[in-house]
Amino acid sequence: MNVKDKVAVVTGGASGLGLATVTRLVEKGAKVVIFDVNEAKAKEAVQQLGESVQYVLVNVADDESVQKGISQALEAFGAIHICVNCAGVGTPGKTIGKKGVLPLEDFNRVIGINLIGTFNVLRLAANEMKNNQPLTDSGERGVIINTASVAAFDGQMGQAAYGASKAGVAGMALPVSRDLSQFGIRVNTIAPGLFMTPMADTLPDKVIEKLAASVEFPKRLGRPSEYAELALFMIEHEYLNGEVIRLDGGIRMSPR
Ligand SMILES: NC(=O)c1ccc[n+]([C@@H]2O[C@H](COP(=O)([O-])OP(=O)(O)OC[C@H]3O[C@@H](n4cnc5c(N)ncnc54)[C@H](O)[C@@H]3O)[C@@H](O)[C@H]2O)c1
Question: Least CB-packed of 15, 53, 101, 165 within 10 Å?
Answer without folding.
Answer: 101
